[in-house]
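The records we work with from here on pair a chain with its fold. Each token is a code from a learned vocabulary of local backbone shapes. A record is reproduced here so that you can trace the correspondence yourselves:

_____
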Amino acid sequence: MLTDKQSLLLCAFLVVGFFIGGILDILNNFVVLTILTISFLAIMVNLISAKSFVKNNEEDSKNSK
């Protein structure tokens, strides 16, 4: 699971990547599109895993009381 700072940096990389790729008109390039897609999927997986991790911890703390 990524830390908050790492997630923020990955989101910034994604935004800058789309911005620079759009300006240079290289978004149709397979390599650029693959890198941006993988970083987007990493952000989504991190969001889903962080939510389930927090949910499981809350359930465990309620069960232990």
